[in-house]
UniProtKB/TrEMBL annotation:
<keyword id="KW-1133">Transmembrane helix</keyword>
<feature type="compositionally biased region" description="Low complexity">
    <location>
        <begin position="49"/>
        <end position="92"/>
    </location>
</feature>
<keyword id="KW-0812">Transmembrane</keyword>
<feature type="region of interest" description="Disordered">
    <location>
        <begin position="44"/>
        <end position="97"/>
    </location>
</feature>
<protein>
    <recommendedName>
        <fullName>DUF4352 domain-containing protein</fullName>
    </recommendedName>
</protein>
<feature type="transmembrane region" description="Helical">
    <location>
        <begin position="20"/>
        <end position="40"/>
    </location>
</feature>
<keyword id="KW-0472">Membrane</keyword>
């Protein structure tokens, strides 16, 4: 015995077809939407990135740093040269005596000047044979070398006389009166200390003679000495 479709089941198939068609259309639409989103979303994201790159244009502000480099040019400093001590030029023939005040600073040669740094009254002591102790004067003479090289002082001679008749004074050898060193360096001052016996009542006129060399005049510091 064969079975025949009943009248109730035959109409279900057309109804199912009516549901499948809209579902397929919806699926197609969904796929299209997904494709559109995938296609257009990178373009929108890419348009944002260019706006960020110009912000790096602020880096040229580092160009201000070169302005600090010229300040280094101020570091080199020129060494200061010693200023020559002013002196009063003296005029005279070699070996000729030229008197100057005790407070003066005469120039004895080119770039060489001298001065009487100090003078005082002392009681001289005779330590060497033939020396006679007694009232004396102690003084220091400076020789200023304003040249660019050392100058020998081996030939420098100092003498003292006093009174109107120019009586020679006797020098006393003393550890406190070492005389001049052998030379004076460039730009330096050499000091020579001496002690000579001079009677106290004969110090109104005292002459301290400085013989520097055979080619220069003899400088004579003239004036009253302490008693």
């Amino acid at each position: 015995m064969s079975t025949e479709p009943t009248p109730e089941t035959a109409p279900d198939q057309p109804a199912r077809r009516r549901w499948i068609v809209p579902a397929a259309i919806a699926a197609v639409v969904l796929v299209v939407v997904i494709i559109l989103v995938a296609v257009f979303s990178p373009k929108n994201a890419g348009t944002v990135t260019p706006t960020d790159s110009p912000s790096t244009s602020a880096s040229p502000s580092t160009s201000a740093t070169p302005t600090s480099t010229p300040s280094a040019s101020a570091t080199p400093t020129t060494p200061a040269t010693p200023q020559p001590t002013s002196g009063t030029p003296i005029e005279g023939e070699p070996g000729e005596e030229v008197e100057v005040p005790i407070t003066d600073t005469p120039t004895v040669a080119q770039g060489i000047s001298t001065s009487l740094a100090s003078i005082s009254a002392v009681q001289g002591v005779g330590d060497e044979p033939g020396e006679i102790a007694g009232p004396a004067i102690k003084f220091t003479v400076n020789i200023i070398n304003n040249t660019s090289s050392a100058v020998s002082l081996r030939d420098v001679v100092v003498n003292v006389d006093y009174g109107t008749d120019r009586t020679p004074a006797s020098e006393l050898n003393d550890s406190d009166a070492p005389g001049f060193p052998s030379e004076v360096a460039a730009g330096q001052t050499a000091a020579g200390t001496f002690i000579f016996t001079v009677p106290e009542d004969q110090r109104d006129i005292v002459r301290i003679s400085l013989f520097y060399s055979v080619d220069t005049p003899v400088v004579v510091f003239s004036g009253a000495a302490p008693r």
